[in-house]
Amino acid sequence: MADTIFSTPVYPAEAARVAASRRILVTQDNGLPGAERLLTQFKDQGGPLLVLSPRSVGQRFEEMLGESLGKAQVGTRLYVCGDEAFLWQVRALARQAGLLDEEIEMFRSGARRRLYCVHCSTLQDIGEVDSSVCTGCGVRLMVRNHFSRRLGAYAGVCLDPNDPRGEGCA
């Protein structure tokens, strides 16, 4: 992909050292190096810590996260570790629960990310690729560096307007 632009998210390497009345760590997988680093940092800082992971709580993950965020008091900070698609999914849930952007820190670990087809509005997960075929309309998409924070996805636009479905390709 080309150079990053203003809308492309930038993720920190470590958590800010900010006081918190409670910390919630949501990790895609407890074994992620970023999650392990955060756990060590938070144990050193002390204070209440809740750790949630879809792998550890299974089907009830979103329900448990919603309950925890719904009960969050002023001073609660949310830390999310996982691939980009996971980060923005959890961020959307946190924003719906009333957390501010300043109370959410995200740490990327993994290649999966989300792509939004501007032609049919389909959202799909992709890896670190420059182009993809839309699962909704079949158009060959170029993955733009433009990132929508509202959708948690990169914009996918028609790669070749003269041959949108790639029929001319061998």
N-to-C SSE string, H for helix and E for strand? EHEHHEHEEEEEE
What is the third-level CATH name, the topology of the largest domain?
Rossmann fold
The chain-level mean pLDDT equals 88
Largest sheet: 5 strands, mixed
* CATH top level label of the largest domain: Alpha Beta
Query: Helix tally?
Result: 4
Number of strands: 9
Strand content: 25-35%
Q: List low-confidence stretches.
A: none
> What would you call the shape?
elongated
* End-to-end CA span: 24 Å
Strand order of the largest sheet: 6-5-9-8-7
Please identify which CATH superfamily of the largest domain we are dealing with.
Answer: Nucleotide-binding domain of ferredoxin-NADP reductase (FNR) module
Organism: Stutzerimonas tarimensis
Protein name: Dimethylamine monooxygenase subunit DmmA family protein
GO molecular function: monooxygenase activity
Domain Dimethylamine monooxygenase subunit DmmA-like C-terminal: 114-157
Describe what you observe in this structure.
There is one protein chain. This protein has 170 residues and is α/β, with parallel strands linked by helices. The chain folds into two domains: 22-108, Nucleotide-binding domain of ferredoxin-NADP reductase (FNR) module (Rossmann fold, 3-Layer(aba) Sandwich); 113-158. It is built from four helices and nine strands; from the N terminus they run βαβααβαββββββ. It has helices spanning 33-45, 54-57, 61-70, 84-96, and strands at 22-27, 49-52, 76-82, 104-108, 113-117, 123-126, 131-133, 140-148, 153-158. The strands form two sheets. A five-stranded mixed beta sheet has the order 6-5-9-8-7, with helices on one face. It has a four-stranded parallel beta sheet with strand order 2-1-3-4, sandwiched between helices. A hairpin with a 6-residue loop joins strand 7 and strand 8. The radius of gyration is 18 Å and the shape is elongated. The two termini are 24 Å apart. The model has no long low-confidence stretch (mean pLDDT 88).
